[in-house]
Amino acid sequence: MSDRARLLIVGAGGLGSPLALALACEPRIAQITLIDPDTVEISNLHRQILLSSAALGRPKVDAAAELLHRRCPRLQGTSPTLRIATRAERLTAKNGASLLRQHDLVIDGSDDLHTKFLVNDTACALGMPALIGGVVRFSGQLQTLWPGSACYRCLFEEPPPPDSVVSCQQAGVLGPACGLVAGLMAQEALAILEGQPRYAGAVLTLDLLTFAQRRIRLAPRADCSACCSAPPADEKSTA
Ligand SMILES: [Zn+2]
Fold first, then answer.
1. Residue 135 C-alpha to ligand 1 middle, in angstroms?
2. 193 CA distance to ligand 1 centroid (A)?
3. Where are the domains of the chain?
4. Cα(34)–Cα(88) distance, rounded to whole angstroms?
5. C-alpha 124 – ligand 1 centre gap (Å)
6. pLDDT tens for residues 75-124?
7. Considering the chain, what is the average pLDDT of its residues?
8. Tell me: the pLDDT tens digits for 182-202?
């Protein structure tokens, strides 16, 4: 693992906040970039541990970065050993590839399914690892995208039609579940950077009501349109 790793964390909310805090303390990480288009709202602060009511209306990434600078010794003093970069915008097809290329690992902690597909497709196209996590109500899951292994689109072929899936806002999220899943994601992020991911080609699901967890192995889907193991686009077109 490089001792100067650069991480892109997509989403600075319930998962992104504890993820950034945990990974900011890791001495082998040199840069964390936070990207999130949202502003701080009062409704979900209970699980967004880098945000507070004092920052209402401000971009989440700016408020999160400010608190990281206050809490993390690596960001203090005359020679900080960590850099926090912020992007108060949405990850899009237009800025995605350029942003991902500037980092060693992209970690998705957003609550938006289209963003997760975009992270997956962009990481696959670039042949770089990614980690995608999510929490709804009492359930969490995480999946590692690793070149040659099944990807997010192998599991969920297409984004669901609008309004066909209950959102985090509609279903609610158990606050402590975010901390638990984010802790596991932080561990997996370090394992990925070491080149030894625990969940490559697998999905980990957690039920916080029963404390049941399942590690489900996935095989790459032969007709996956994004998968890292799929043939390049020019080969597909002539197949
Ligand atoms: Zn795939």
1. 22
2. 21
3. 5-238
4. 8
5. 8
6. 888 888 999 999 999 999 999 999 999 999 999 999 888 999 999 999 99
7. 87
8. 999 999 999 999 999 999 989
Which residues fall within 8 angstroms of residue 227, CB to CB, at 6 or more apart?
Answer: 124, 150, 151, 153, 154, 220, 221
CA distances, 116 to each of 80, 158, 205 (Å): 32, 11, 17
Supply 95's token pair. Answer: 């800025």
Ligand 1 center to residue 150 CA distance, Å? Answer: 5
pLDDT tens digits for range 3-58: 689 999 999 988 999 999 999 999 999 999 999 999 888 777 776 777 777 878 89
Coil/strand/helix, residue 116: helix
Distance CA 157, CA 94 (A): 22
Domain 5-238, CATH number (from 3.40.50.300, 3.40.50.720, 3.40.50.1240, 3.30.390.80): 3.40.50.720
**Distance (Å) from CA 114 to ligand 1 centroid:** 15
Ligand 1 geometric centre to CA of 228 (Å)? 6
In the three-class reduction of DSSP (H, G, I as helix; E, B as strand; rest coil), residue 190 is classed as: helix
